[in-house]
Every structure is written in structure tokens, then in C-alpha cells.
Design brief:
This protein has twelve helices and four strands, in the order αββαααααααααββαα. By secondary structure, the protein is mainly alpha-helical. The N terminus is likely disordered.
């Protein structure tokens, strides 16, 4: 049996139409059925991991930060005295670790959603293999889990170089607190990126995080009578209830009290910095519950944003053309 030029073009057209209908004429199996093993939460976790920690960028950044922590631990000058020197060096490396976790949260949020924005969330369309719930869960698990692994790695580097120190337990709690405080930035950046795009996700999330932290500081300053109430503070406090407020662990107070004693200065505030243990309010159970409620609210908002994107993708991507379905 032979085919002419017209017959060959018709065969190609039929094959392309079958592909459009998600049917493979070579195997007789629907492409949806063939891709079923690639759907689900495990598949979403694999995709998200490949985009973030499975690539080169984030592991290289983590290795660079670990090397910087080692260098800081060895060369950073510190006040005289065993306790002052140890706390001074820990304070220096903690600033690097905290900043690295915040940057890691932003980069992770960008990498987790940038490809989906470019493809207009085709994986959530009617011809995709992702559901909104698995899409949300996979990215949250990989985003928070990757940050947790980075915090553990950096915390181990700090602890290894401070084996003879007396504040190892407090330092471990402090690193865990820095990780927990980076999670809202990750989730907030994902919510804003999924809803409004990359620019809003990367810039607005940082602004909102800083406003929330400053509102928490102003609340403590107003409570101990250090500053007088004003309309500006009231507005900031009202907005601050809707923004992430960082948790504070006891190690922060140890650092600031030691700094005050070492420098022979009376505990005072300078801008948003605090010196003195009496001006540090460690987060209690109520703060932790409120923090957890905020994370839950962010997770729900992220799911709603993914459902909205899925609805858009369903309207945009139609697997069967109308003229072909009519025939």
C-alpha cells in the first residue's frame, strides 16, 4: 500500500489530532494514562526539588555561606574575655546565617514558581498532571524542608567550630529560631509571586517582613514605656498584625546583655537595636500560637492562589479544539 503526498499529509494531521486528544496512535494508550505515574505529591516534590536544591545555584550558595562562616569564626575580632569573645564571634556568624536563610527563602520562592509563571501554570491546566492541592503541598514541603536542611548544615558548621563553648544549646535554639523566622518570608514570597508575579514576590515580601518586625519592636517599646504613643505607631501596629512578626529566643538577650557589659554602657536603644536584657521580650506560648496561625493562613492563601491560577489555566488551555470536537 502506497501513500502519495496528500496521503502523507493526512496521516500527519491524524497523528497530530490524536496527540491533541491525548491519544497515542502508536501504542493505543491515552497520554493521560501514561502520565498517571508522574502525578501526585511525590512527583511534585521531585519537580520542586529539581528546581531548587537539586540544581547548582542553591547548593553553591550554601557552600559559599558555610565557607564564609568558617572564615568569620577564625578572623572576627571579639571583646576581651572568654565569655565576651565567644558571644562576640557567635553574634558575627549568626548575622551571616540569618541573612543567608532570608536570601535562601527568596531564591527558593523564585525558583519554585518562576517556571510555572513562564508557562502560565500549564501544569495546573486540564492537560496538566498537577492538582492545586498537590502543587501547593509539594512546593511548601520542598521550600521549608530545603531551608531546614540549610539551617542544620550551617548550624553544624557553627557548632563544630565552638565545641568547647558554653552556649552550644542556646546557639542551636537560636539557629532554629532563625530558620522558623525565614519560613514566613518564603511562604509570603510564594503567595505574592503566585498572585502578582515575580517583582511583587521578591520586593513586597521583604518590605512586609521588615514592617512586621518593626511593629513587633514598637509594641515592646511601647509596653515598657521607652517611647511615647503616637498616631504613626498606632498605624504601624494595626498593619503589623497582618504581617509576619519574628520570634525571639533567649540567646538574643544574652548577646545584647553581654555587649552592654563588655562595652561598659548603660542599656539603651539605638534605632531598632536593643542593648540590655530588660528590654528583650522572649517569645512565649501565645506568640508561638499566633505565629503558627499566621503560617497556616499563608498556606491557605497560597492554596487559594494556586486554585485561581488553575482556573485561569483551565480556561486558557483547551485540550480539544472546538472545530475538532464538533466533528
Amino acid at each position: 500500500m502506497t501513500f502519495g503526498r496528500g496521503s502523507a499529509s493526512r496521516v500527519f494531521f491524524i497523528y497530530a489530532a490524536a496527540k491533541t486528544l491525548w491519544f497515542d496512535p502508536m501504542t493505543g494508550a491515552a497520554l493521560v494514562q501514561r502520565n498517571e505515574h508522574r502525578s501526585g505529591l511525590i512527583a511534585e516534590i521531585r519537580v520542586a526539588w529539581a528546581r531548587t536544591w537539586g540544581g547548582r545555584l542553591l547548593p553553591l550558595l550554601l557552600a559559599g555561606v558555610a565557607l564564609l562562616v568558617v572564615v568569620q569564626r577564625l578572623v572576627t575580632p571579639a571583646p576581651a574575655g572568654v565569655v565576651h569573645g565567644e558571644l562576640g564571634r557567635l553574634a558575627a556568624v549568626n548575622e551571616t546565617v540569618g541573612f543567608a536563610l532570608m536570601v535562601g527563602a527568596l531564591v527558593s520562592a523564585y525558583r519554585l514558581l518562576s517556571f510555572d509563571l513562564s508557562s502560565e501554570f500549564e501544569s495546573l491546566s486540564s492537560r496538566g498532571t498537577s492538582g492545586a492541592l498537590t502543587f501547593t503541598a509539594g512546593r511548601l514541603v520542598v521550600g521549608a524542608g530545603g531551608l531546614g536542611l540549610a539551617a542544620i548544615a550551617l548550624g553544624l558548621v557553627v557548632e563544630v567550630f565552638d565545641l568547647s563553648g558554653r552556649y552550644q544549646r542556646e546557639e542551636a535554639v537560636h539557629v532554629a529560631t532563625m530558620f522558623v523566622n525565614a519560613v514566613p518570608l518564603l511562604m509570603l514570597a510564594m503567595v505574592l509571586t503566585c498572585t502578582f508575579g515575580r517583582i511583587a514576590g521578591m520586593i513586597a515580601s521583604v518590605v512586609m517582613l521588615n514592617l512586621g518586625a518593626d511593629a513587633a519592636y514598637q509594641r515592646a517599646a511601647l509596653a515598657d514605656g521607652f517611647i511615647a504613643p503616637s498616631g504613626l505607631y498606632s498605624i504601624e501596629e494595626a498593619v503589623g498584625w497582618l504581617l509576619p512578626r519574628p520570634l525571639v529566643d533567649p540567646f538574643t538577650g544574652l548577646l545584647l546583655m553581654d555587649k552592654s557589659v563588655a562595652l561598659q554602657q548603660f542599656p539603651v536603644r539605638q534605632g531598632t537595636g536593643v542593648w540590655g536584657w530588660d528590654l528583650i521580650q522572649v517569645s512565649g506560648p501565645a506568640d508561638i500560637v499566633l505565629f503558627a496561625a499566621y503560617l497556616l493562613a499563608l498556606a491557605v492563601l497560597f492554596y487559594v492562589a494556586c486554585r485561581w491560577r488553575a482556573a485561569q489555566a483551565h480556561r486558557r488551555f483547551v485540550p480539544i479544539p472546538g472545530w475538532l470536537e464538533g466533528r
